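Technical appendix A lists one of the benchmark inputs used to test multi-chain prediction within the project. The record comprises two sequence entries:
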Amino acid sequence: MSQPEATGPMAVKIAAKHYQALCGLALAAILLLQFQQSAQAVFAPGLILFIHALTLFIGVAGILYRIRMTPAVVLLTVAAPKVIERYYQSQVAFVDVRGVRVFDVADMLMCVAGLIFFIGYYRLQGLWFGVLPPDPRRHGKPARPPMVRSEDSMRPAELLSLILVVPIFVILAELSFVVLNQPWNLLELDYRWNQFLLVSWAILLTMFLGAHAFRYWRRLNMNRMTALVMVQDILWHETRGEQRKIQRWLAWRRLRNKAR
Amino acid sequence: MLTTRGFWFFLIASGVLAAAVLLGAAQLTLLALTLLLWFLGQWVLFQVRIRLAVRRLVVGRILRTSRGEVQSLWAKQKVEVVVTLRGAGVVGLPYVVMTERVPALARVEDGTALCLDGAVSAEEPLTLTYSLECPAAGWLCFDGVRIQMADLQGFFTHAAFLHERRDYRVLPTLPVSMSHSTFVKQHNVLPLLGTHRHARPGGSSELLDLRDYLPGDPPKMIAWKVSARRDRLITREFESEVPIRCTLFVDTSNSVRVGPVGETALCRLVEVAAGLAQANASERDLTGLCLFDETGVRATVKAGRGSKHFLNLIALLTDVAGLTPQSAEATVRDLVPLAYGLAQDLYPELLDRDVNRFPFWLPLWSPQPGWAIPPGTPRYFSRLLPGLRREYRLRKELAAICAARYGLGPGGLAMLLEDDERCVHYLQRFLAEHQIACPISLYDDRGRYVFAAPKKPGILADALLKAVTRGKDNELFVLCVDLLENADALAKLERAICVAKARHHQVIVICPWPAGVDPPGARPTPLMASLGMALLLQRLCTDQLHEAFAKVRRALGRVGVPVLCAAQGETVNWILHHMRKLRIQERGVR
């Protein structure tokens, strides 16, 4: 009965299978890069190979079937071989990562493939499980369409924006990595802990400042009613004790008069 | 708002980044940084989008029938509603779920999709189309549409309500072929254009008298046979046809407002009154209206005729048809969850923690004391109960909204938070403005009907006497009133009716009947042991109502007033036909 207005006779329709294909390609790229890098692995090659196989299995199963945990598990399985490798390396000798490669093709490809996989998979989840969280007032009743995103709402432009956005964030990450690799010595701590603190502070500060900036922006654009409620609320918070006492006695007086 | 999905993604990506940085895994650091930067980018983009785009969203609404776009509609008429959501700015929204809020009076077919999702921009609007029907007269109030926005990954969401209030008048169904009752007037001061008999010489076809011919009488009026018999010229005289004044007294008290919106006894009375007004208008009779409730007379319209007057009557009737019951017996505990649900739907921005904050420790520190709570109100006996905390929080947030909405001043919030009676009053008002029927218990703890209103027959009697004193000639008074709970308090009304009858006015009482209850005369469900408790109670209530109706009928029958039952299944035509039959029997004419 109702539908978004037609986008023209020549409009190209996209569906979930397009995202599935995109995720499949990205997963293949990730695994090829992983296998290539693990071919040179010295420590626990069997275990690393097993983890890659596990990544393949989980990734393919997640693309073909609807599994909520796939992105998280894939990220962990992609990270696990590198963590294991670094762990064993650090057991043998100190590894200084300062001055490591920047704008390395393999690294950038891995980032591109990884980001495409995650974007694509989360969009698939929107089509399978819904984009919006379930209404808590529905008390556990199943979500109804269109809480699950309808395929009619998909546009080719969203695939295009996905492809265009990815290189921007990869380059940004590379630049951030360059900044991170500078010889920061904020506290007299180990180099890695310095890096860790820097990253943590940068993320937290960005989020804190961003949240407050958006909050301020929202207050600037508030409508009259919202502003009235806010002022009323602030006044109540400031004079809560006094107002409470006065109003309770007034309520008591009204009740007493009524009883008489 | 960050969703669970977004939270877990952020947590895992941050954890991987921390591990990668601490272990010095360059590729993994880069990957995790890319994911986190993308996540933060999505957040910033989402926030910018909702701040730029939501203010510029425009909702359009059209109501269409087979005749095209309409601004008012008839009850029981099928109407197509077209809702359009369009962005007026440069920035579009990638994913929006638009949910239509259907007015309480509207009835939509089961399974009709009332929400739609998709991208919204200036070039690409969302259009929702559905059909609805209104069962009764009243106001069809569209508040607007609820929108939920999200990014395509489902990491962030934002809910808002686009207020676009549109009120459409729903006119009562008017019977097409209306047979009108006739009346014999003893005295007339109105212009001679009507259909009711008046025993004065006039131009109707009913013979009044025969008299001697006077020079100037038209020859066609000569009764030739009688003239031949009497051997002198005799002229026929015919009766006059005159209009009558009919005053409708419509009960709008709480007792007739009970029930789902559009299915109340008041809607039924409005339908009957509108039918009578139309029947009168078609016969060129004059119709007046008096709307009253348990507190007094709400509105009075002098008897008149003409299309403007008729539309005025219909407008007044439509205004009262959608009234919802208000009761001082309602409790904060009953109303708060309902009002909060409404506020969540319509005013999500006013419940935001940044705007309307609640200190979590307040119920523990200073709950409402027992001496400030009206006796008989349910209360919590421990300040540690989670129910108390929840109710306190919801009440505080609603109090802030009501205080700002109704301009209660700086102390309004505290007043609504501490004074139960005021809080109940404003919450009921808030719900009534959005046509939400409150969950009201119809009987108090002593088993008495809450809306009995013993003063109501007295108010009606006063209004009737006032109309009688103003009446210049014989009039018809139609009392559309619920007297079932006042069967023992009709003395004053009986006296007023006697006065009216003594002045040769005619009085008819139409009593509304509750929906879902067998009308008087129907075969009752036999009492059996197998009947469940609910059925048994229903049967007892039905018996009680039948008894009350019989009592009212007996009491008013003593003063010669017929009482009709306007049960839900019966059409207005049937009631009018029945009225006509009654009056013919009474007068023995036509």
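Chain A has two domains: 16-182, 224-259. The CA atoms of residues 125 and 137 of chain A lie 22 Å apart. Comparable benchmark entries are summarised in Table A2.
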